[in-house]
């Protein structure tokens, strides 16, 4: 009886740790599939801007359009993984067929934002290639906008402020150059640590089994 309870406890704990490791392997398979799907979307040939794009079905889809900046852009302050600290310039763009959408023209350094924003207000027609995106920059600590300066790309709120559709294109290429340096949508920064977590859980399971064997050995020696 002295051996049965520790054995059950040890095997049960090891089984739980192994189950957590297997769950992480399932998550790894799901994450790799998601990343592969994103990569295939991002790298596909650009299409015309869909009439009614869907945030789930059309996220990351490459598009091309012609239009001009129609209104003063919003500036989103942040330290961006892709381009360092600076402002992302989110401009309202009127397309040739009369639609109004938002275009993330890219990042400008903090010390050049006034000059670059003026360049972004050019009257020239722009040829824009990029990806539809509904970024998720918001978190519980995000401050409210301060005039034209925002602290996250909130598609719905920005669309209401700029009077556009709830559609954002993250520019990959703009002709002629609009001032900001485009930061295309990419796979950088997507965490995929599930294999490491699985190895940790399996390692803990081995340690747990080793401790169980040692405990059983100690108990058995005391009873001899």
Give a verbal description of the structure:
With 224 residues, the protein is of the alpha/beta class. The chain folds into two domains: 4-38 and 191-223, no CATH class; 61-175, OB fold (Dihydrolipoamide Acetyltransferase, E2P) (Beta Barrel), CATH 2.40.50. The protein has four helices and eight strands. Strands 2-4-5-8-6 form a five-stranded mixed barrel. The radius of gyration is 26 Å and the shape is elongated.
Q: Count every helix, treating DSSP H or I runs of 4 or more residues as helices.
A: 4
Separation, N- and C-terminal Cα atoms: 14 Å
Percent in helix: 25-40%
In sequence order, what are the helices and strands, one letter per element? HEEEEEHEEHEH
Let me know the average pLDDT.
84
Assign the CATH architecture of the largest domain. Answer: Beta Barrel
Radius of gyration: 26 Å
Question: What's the number of structural domains?
Answer: 2
**Strand order across the biggest sheet?**
2-4-5-8-6
Low-confidence stretches: none
As for the CATH topology of the largest domain, it is OB fold (Dihydrolipoamide Acetyltransferase, E2P)
**Which of globular, elongated, flat, extended, rod-shaped describes the shape?**
elongated
What secondary-structure arrangement, pairings included, does this model have?
Elements: H1 4-42, E1 47-48, E2 62-69, E3 74-80, E4 84-95, E5 100-108, H2 113-120, E6 126-132, E7 149-150, H3 155-162, E8 168-175, H4 194-223
Parallel strand pairs: 1-2, 3-7, 5-8
Antiparallel strand pairs: 2-4, 2-6, 3-4, 4-5, 6-8
Helix pairs in contact: 1-4
């Amino acid at each position: 009886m002295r051996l049965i309870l520790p054995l059950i406890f040890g095997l049960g704990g090891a089984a739980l740790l192994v189950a957590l490791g297997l769950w992480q392997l399932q998550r790894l398979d799901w994450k790799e599939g998601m990343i592969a799907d994103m990569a295939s979307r991002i790298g596909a040939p650009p299409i015309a801007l869909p009439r009614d794009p869907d945030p789930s079905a059309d996220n990351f889809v490459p598009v091309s359009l012609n239009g001009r900046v129609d209104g003063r852009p919003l500036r989103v302050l942040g330290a961006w993984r892709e381009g360092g600290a600076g402002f992302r310039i989110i401009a309202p763009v009127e397309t040739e067929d009369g639609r109004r959408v938002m275009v993330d023209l890219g990042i400008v350094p903090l010390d050049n934002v006034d000059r670059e924003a003026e360049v972004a207000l050019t009257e020239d027609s722009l040829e824009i290639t990029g990806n539809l995106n509904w970024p998720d920059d918001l978190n519980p600590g995000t401050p409210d906008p301060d005039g034209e300066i925002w602290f996250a790309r909130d598609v719905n709120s920005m669309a209401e402020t700029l009077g556009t559709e709830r559609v954002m294109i993250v520019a990959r290429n703009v002709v002629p150059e609009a001032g900001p340096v485009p930061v295309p949508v990419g796979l950088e920064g997507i965490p995929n640590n599930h294999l490491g977590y699985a190895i940790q859980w399996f390692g803990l399971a081995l340690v747990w089994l080793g401790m169980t064997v040692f405990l059983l050995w100690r108990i058995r020696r005391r009873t001899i």
